[in-house]
Amino acid sequence: MTIGDSAPALALRPPLGEHVRRYVPALDWLRRYRRQDLSGDAMAGLIVAIMLVPQGMAYAQLAGLPPQAGLYASIVPLVLYGLLASSRYVNMGPTAISSLLVATGIGQLAAEGNAEYWDLALVLAFLVGIIRIVMGLLGVGFLVNFLSHSVLAGFTSAAVLIIGASQVEHLLGIDVPRFGTFHEALISILVRAAETNPITLAIGLASAALLYYFRGPLPRQLRRWRVPPTIREPVTRAAPLAVVALTTVLVWGLGLDRSAAVRIVGEIPSGLPPLTLPSFDLGRWQALLPSALAISLVGYVESISSAKTLASKRRERLDANQELLATGAANLGAAFTGGYPISGSFSRSAVNFAAGARTGLSNVVTAAAITLTVLFLTPLLYFLPQAALGAIIIAAIFGLVDIAFLRLVWRYSQADTAALLITFLAVLELGVERGILVGIVASLALYLWRTSHPHVAVVGRLGSSEHFRNVKRYPVQTHPHILAIRVDSSLYFANANIFCDLLRASLADRPEIRHVVLIGSSVNFIDASAVEALDSLVQELRDAGVAFHLADFKGRVMDRLDRVGFASRMGEGRIFLSAHEAILALGPE
Amino acid sequence: MTIGDSAPALALRPPLGEHVRRYVPALDWLRRYRRQDLSGDAMAGLIVAIMLVPQGMAYAQLAGLPPQAGLYASIVPLVLYGLLASSRYVNMGPTAISSLLVATGIGQLAAEGNAEYWDLALVLAFLVGIIRIVMGLLGVGFLVNFLSHSVLAGFTSAAVLIIGASQVEHLLGIDVPRFGTFHEALISILVRAAETNPITLAIGLASAALLYYFRGPLPRQLRRWRVPPTIREPVTRAAPLAVVALTTVLVWGLGLDRSAAVRIVGEIPSGLPPLTLPSFDLGRWQALLPSALAISLVGYVESISSAKTLASKRRERLDANQELLATGAANLGAAFTGGYPISGSFSRSAVNFAAGARTGLSNVVTAAAITLTVLFLTPLLYFLPQAALGAIIIAAIFGLVDIAFLRLVWRYSQADTAALLITFLAVLELGVERGILVGIVASLALYLWRTSHPHVAVVGRLGSSEHFRNVKRYPVQTHPHILAIRVDSSLYFANANIFCDLLRASLADRPEIRHVVLIGSSVNFIDASAVEALDSLVQELRDAGVAFHLADFKGRVMDRLDRVGFASRMGEGRIFLSAHEAILALGPE
Prior knowledge:
Two copies of one chain form a homodimer.
Chain A: H1 3-6, H2 16-23, H3 25-31, H4 35-63, H5 67-72, H6 76-84, E1 91-93, H7 96-107, H8 115-138, H9 149-172, H10 182-192, H11 198-215, H12 217-224, H13 229-237, H14 239-254, H15 256-259, H16 282-313, H17 320-336, E2 343-345, H18 346-354, H19 361-377, H20 386-397, H21 403-412, H22 414-430, H23 432-452, E3 455-462, E4 468-470, E5 476-477, E6 482-488, H24 493-508, E7 515-519, H25 528-543, E8 547-551, H26 555-563, E9 575-576, H27 579-586
Helix pairs in contact in A: 2-3, 4-7, 4-14, 4-18, 4-19, 4-20, 6-17, 6-19, 7-16, 8-16, 8-17, 9-10, 9-20, 9-22, 9-23, 11-14, 11-20, 16-18, 21-22, 22-23, 24-25
C-alpha cells in the first residue's frame, strides 16, 4: 500500500489511503515492523496476560458482573486498541476505577446478577465508545484538563475507600446490601460483621499475604539469587495468578465450597466471546448518560496519562485525539462482544513498557493469550473463591493513591487542598458521578475566585536601576505626584471592576497625584468589559485632572486596544515601553 | 452623639456608636450638614420627583401592577436608602429593568390584576432585600462582577425589545396575552393589530412626539432664549409630567374613555402607603427565588454602576457592601409598604447629580414630594390614559442600549461578541432569568477556553540587547541546543497539560536540544496540578538528557515552588533572574 507515498505534495484532497493511514497507525508501524520487535512484544504481551486473567475476573466482580465479562472485555477491545492507538505501550482492559463507575452507574437501575444488569453494561460501553469517538473527531480532548489533578486525587482517594469497602463482603463472606453513601456502607458492614465466615476470611488473608510476598520479599530474593530478569519479571507479575491457582486447588481439594460454605466463582462458560447487541432504548441511554460521561472522562484520563508518561520516556509523539478514537473503538468492541467499559491501565501499561513492548502488537498478543484462556482454561476456575478475587482487587488499588501528590498539595496550596477535600467528601457522600461534578465546579470556582482578586502592587524605582519593585517589600524611590501601579493578572470582567476600585481607592486618599502609570508586564489579555471599565476610569481621571499612562504592555494586548482607539481617548495619557521610561518622562516636576 | 469620637484608639471592641455610624452613613453627613447643601438637595429632590411620579406609575404598569404600587415604592424605600447609602447621588425607585424582571418572574405564577399578583411582588421585594443584606454582610458584592459587561449589554438590548413589545398593547389599545418567547409575542401583536384603537394610538403617538420635543428641540430653544438653568432644568425634565397632564385633560375633556373606549388608569386610592406584610409561604419563596436572585444581581449592578460613576466624578469613596445593605433595606421598605422591587436608576441619578444633590437628603425630599402626590393629587390622575404611560416607558428605555459599547465589542473581540449575542438570543427566546444564566455560563466558558489555550512563544535574543522576542516576529539569535520558551499565562489545571504537550512536541522534532529555558515573566501563579505536570515533564526531560531551567519568574511564584522543593528536583536545571542571564550561562557550547 503506497498510494499515500506517491501522492503529489500539493494535492488538495489527500487520497483515501492517507485518511486510512492517519486513523490507523498500525498501517504505519506494521510496514516497518522488524523481527527483533516481535520478541519484545510477545514477552510483554504474555506477562501482561498473566496479570490480566485474574485482574479481569476480579474487576468484573467489582463491576457486579460475572467473571467472564472481564475476560471478554480483554480480547476484541485489545486488538482494536492495539491497531488504532497512537500509544505503543498502553494496555487496554478492565480497570478498578472504570469498574467502580460501572457498578455505581448500573447499580441504581438493575439488580446485580440480573440479566438486565449485563445488558446495561453493554449499553454503557457502547455510549462510552460513541462519546469518545465524537470527542476525538471534534478534537475536544483538551476538555479532560478541566478535571484537575487535585480533583482526580480527591476522587481516586475516595474511590479506593469505596472499592475497598465493596470487597469486604467477599473477604468476610457476608452479604452487604448495595449501599448509598460511604458511611452507610461502613455501618452495614459493622452490623453484619458477626456473620463472618472464618474460612473465607482465612482464604482472603492468606491471599493478601501471598500478594504481599510476591510484591516485596520475593523480587529481592530472586535478585539475590541472580535470577535473570527474563524469568524474574514474569514470576513476580504472576502473584495474582498464583493466588488464583493455590486458592482454587485448596477449595477443590478440601471441598470448602460445601463443607464451609465458601463462595466460589462457579461455572464460567468455555468458548469465544459471544456477539452481543447493546439495546437501543433511548430511556436507558438517557439514564446511563451521566455514568457514560463520567467513565468517558475519567477513563480517558487514566489512558492518556499512562500513554503520555510512557511516550515521553522515549521522546515519542502522542496524538491525544487518536487516543480518544482508539479507546472509543475499544469500548465499542467491548459492547459488541459481551464486555463492559474499559480503559488504559496504569499498572499494566507500566509492566508492558518495562517488559519490552515495542508496538501495539503486545496488546494483540495479550488478547490471544486471553482467548486461549476462555477457550480451554475456564473449567479449571470453577472452584476459585470470591475472597481471592477480593484480595486481588484490594492489593491492586493501594497503588492508585498518589501519596506524594497528596503531600505536595497539602504543603503547596490551600485552594488546591480545598478542591481535593471537597471532591473526596462529595464522592464518598454524594456518589461518584455527582462527586466528580462537585469537584469540577469547586475547582473552577476556586480558579475564578483567584483570578477575580488580582494582586496589585504600587511600585517604585529600586536604587538607580531600571527595576521597579513593590513599595511594601523594597526601599524604593517614588514621586508624590505619580502613582506607578502593577497588576499581576490579565484584566477581564470578573476582576476589572475590582482592580479599578482599588485604583480609585488609592487616589481618593491622595489628591496630590497627577499621573497614574499602569504597568502591564503581566497582563496577557484584556477583555471588552475590562476595556470599558478602563475607559470609564480614564474619563473619570481626566475629569479629576489626572493623566492615565500605560507602560510595559505586550504588543498583542496593545494591538487589540488600538482596534478600538483606546489610546486616542487617553487625552494627555501616553504609552511607554517600560516603567523606567515613564518615570523618566513624568519624573520630578 | 460623640461616643464614637471619644473612644480610645486601642479599644478592642468598638463601642456601639461606632457600629451604628458604620452602617448608617447619614449620622456622619447629617452632623456636618451645611445650610448651602440644603438648596442643592431640595432642588435636585424636587426635579427627580417630577420625573418619578409619571415613571413610577408607568413602570408599575410594566411590572403588571396598579400605578399606585410605583408611587408607594418611591416613599419609604427612598428615605431608608437616603439614610443608609454610601452613595450621595443615586436615586432609588422603580426602574424599567427591575419592573420587567418582576413581570416575568410573577407572570408565571399569578394572573395580572389578581390580588395575589401584588402580594407576590411584595414577597419578591422582601426576598431581594434579604438577599442583598446577606450579601452585604458577607461582603460578597464582588460576585456581581461575574455578570460581565458583554452579558449585561446583551441582556439589556434584549430587555429593551421585550419591554417595547410589552407596551405595544397599551399603545394600540389591544389585548395581547402574556407571552412566552419574543417571537411569539411579535406574532400575537401582528395577529391582533387589526383591532387597534385609532384614538388610543393617536394619544400614544402624540405623547411620543411631546417627549421627543422636550428632549431635543425644547432645551435648545430655552438655551437660545437664555433661560437660566435653574428654570431650564426642571422644565426639560417635566416632559413625562406634561404628557400625563395633557393626555389626562384631553381624555377627561372629550370623554374619550367612554366615547372611544380609551383605556384609562382609573381610581388610584388617596392616602399614605398601606402597611403590608409579605406572605411567609415557603412554597412561594422557592418559586420566586430565581427571580429574586436575578433582580438582586441585575438591580444591584444598575445601582452600583450609577453610584460608582458619580462618586468618582467627585473623587469620593464608595463602599460597595454598604450599597448592598442600603438597597436591601430599601427593598425591605418596599415589601412592607405596598411597593415592589426597586433599584438605583441610572437616568434619575444622573439628573439628581446634575441638579446639585449633595447628600442622601435629596432622596428624602423626593419621597416627601411623592407623599404629597399620593395624599392629594391621585384623584386628578383618574383619566390618565394607559397609552401615555406606554409612551413614557418606551421613551425611557431607548437610553438603556449602550450603542458605543456594542460597537466597541464588535470591533474588539469575537469572544465578547459571542457572549453578548448568546445572552441576547437566550434572553429573547428562553426568558430573562434563564437567559442571564446562559450568558453567565457562556462568558465563563469563553474565559476558561481562552486561559486554557495559552499563547506560547519560542524566543531568541534581539540583536545585542538583553531583550528576548518571539522568533516568528523578530530576526533573533538562537542556539540550536537551547529552547527558550515564554508562556503568556498563569499555569493551572486547564492549561498545564496543553502547555507541557506543546513543549514535548517541540522537543520530539529536535533531538539536538540539551537545555529548555522556561521564561515566566507572565506567570502570575502556578497551581498544584501544574506543579505536578511540570514535575513530570522535568523528570522525563532528565531521563532524556535535557536540563530544564526557569528564568524571570516572580518572587511570589518562586516562594511557593520552594515550599515543595521544586528546584531540588530539577537536577542540573537552574533558576535564572532573566532570560539573558540564562543564555549567557548556557550559551554557545
